[in-house]
Amino acid sequence: MSQYFEVHPDNPQPRLLKQAAQILHGGGIVAVPTDSSYALACHLDDKGAAERLRRIRQVDDKHHLTLLCRDLSELATYARVDNRQYRLLKLGTPGPFTFILEATKEVPRRLSHPSRRTIGLRVPDHRVLQALLAEFGQPLLATTLIPPGESEPMNEAEAIRDRFEKQLQAVVDAGACPMQPTTVIDLSQDDAPVLVRQGRGTAAALGL
Question: How is the chain split into domains, by residue range?
């Protein structure tokens, strides 16, 4: 049975965020709100939690998982970023963009793409998630909460609890999210940025 935290969207209760962070530190999978849709999140360094995350989504190791970071300084620990890439990152963060970048050695090899050594990173523009990341103290490993066999992400916390309560350890309810995934931009190539998926973020916001 998953725990259910009803969190105020503008003034999240520190006590509830602390409990959610403790569950994450303990290896739990938690459904969290973002500025695009709800996501499944777990501890970056917990191999078992990452494997369960993939099983819930039914995706293999070629599916890019994403690191949710508080800011660009945190993001730079986990990805190699040159000046051109950094300018684009500044334009798109915080916001509904996921950037595929070359992973540093700080990212466990099992989490990066098996043939390309890349990782998805993003800085969400969501008050509750930012507060949870601050309480947790490091990036979270995450994936958009799209049920297996479906194409649309979930954005109602109660529906998420009803459907996944035996697979999740907690659900953080901060109200409905926009029902669009992030826009994914691949910056790992030597040439121009590649639009991998059009989502909530507009490429025009990045000057592309």
Answer: 3-206
Amino acid type, 172: V
Residue 32, beta-bridge partner list: 39
Distance of alpha carbon 187 from the chain centroid: 17
Q: In whole angstroms, what is the distance from residue 150 CA to residue 140 CA?
A: 24
Assess whether pLDDT exceeds 70 at residue 11: yes
Rounded to an integer, what distance in angstroms lies between the CA atom of residue 85 and that of residue 100?
A: 11
Q: Is the pTM of this model over 0.90?
A: yes
Q: Which tokens hold the place of 171?
A: 């659900």
**In sequence order, what are the beta bridge partners of 39?**
32, 144
Instruction: Return the DSSP state at 114.
Output: T
DSSP strand E in the chain: where?
3-6, 30-32, 39-43, 66-68, 79-80, 97-103, 118-122, 140-144, 170-173, 183-186, 194-197
C-alpha to C-alpha distance for 161 and 157, rounded to whole angstroms:
6
Fold of the domain built from segment(s) 3-206 = DHBP synthase (3.90.870)
β-sheet bridge partners, residue 5: 172
**pLDDT value for 28:** 96
29 pLDDT higher than 90: yes
- Please give the backbone phi and psi of residue 82, each rounded to the nearest 5 degrees, phi first: -95, 180
Structure tokens at 178: 């926009």
- The arithmetic mean of pLDDT across residues 23-37, rounded, is 95
